[in-house]
Specification:
Number of helices: 8
Number of strands: 12
Organism: Methanoculleus formosensis
Domain ABC transporter: 2-238
Helix content: 25-40%
Bound molecules: adenosine-5'-diphosphate, magnesium ion
GO molecular function, one term: ATP binding
Protein name: ABC transporter ATP-binding protein
Radius of gyration: 18 Å
Pfam family, one: ABC_tran
Length: 243
Amino acid sequence: MLDISDLHVEVDGIEKLHDINLHIGQGETHILMGPNGSGKSTLLKAVMGFGGYKITSGSIVFKGKEIIGMPIHERAHLGIGMMFQHPPTISGLKLGKLLAATSHLGSDAIEALAQSVNMEKFLTRDTNVGFSGGEIKRSEVLQLKVQQPDFLMLDEPESGVDLENMNLMGKEIAGLLEKDVHIVNRRKSGLIITHTGYILDYLEADQGHVLIDGRIRCHGNPREILRAVKDKGYGECLRCQQM
Ligand SMILES: Nc1ncnc2c1ncn2[C@@H]1O[C@H](COP(=O)(O)OP(=O)(O)O)[C@@H](O)[C@H]1O
Ligand SMILES: [Mg+2]
């Protein structure tokens, strides 16, 4: 579904991602870990096509199409969706209007999806304005439920979420990724950035990757990587790779 090859990305004239290679098949979920500032969010934003993230070499092929140079809305139409680590607040744009503009669903269907994540009272409020941490994340999940992207990039879905909301988020994300469908028939794939690994309590991930200083240093079993990082820190990934 997604093939990133030899990708180099610059921000403000400084190379932040070096030689990234990542291949995510249909139905697969991959986990991305790494210390603060290592470039995890930068990678997702480069795939989504945000301005300011300049691709100096490499390729990003999604569903067989090179997407570098394609505007964000075309990437979204192709089936790429993203949950932000720090979503913007948008004064003057009601959440219900935003949802209606990003899908072909009617207002009843949107209302039903909003109810499923306890957001029905928020449709008439300005998007994310004054929302609590949990409400912002539920708003993000709702936007993805409405958009139904085939490839989901989730940037730290656990951050700022209390335990009760985490339970809801975990189940909803597993649903968005069609984890209840056998991998042979599953259409959805995902790339999830996680610090805590809590999300792994709710869904199985197929592969884990560790990004340090803009380079992917390790690929492997997500739970084993999480355990190693919890026990020994990211320094262990560098030591391990040198060996
Ligand atoms: N829009 C931007 N302008 C300037 N620097 C940026 C921008 N986005 C990211 N960076 C820098 O790139 C580095 C990687 O950031 P980021 O991808 O957010 O890290 P992570 O998500 O792994 O914590 C950091 O040093 C950050 O300050
Ligand atoms: Mg980040």
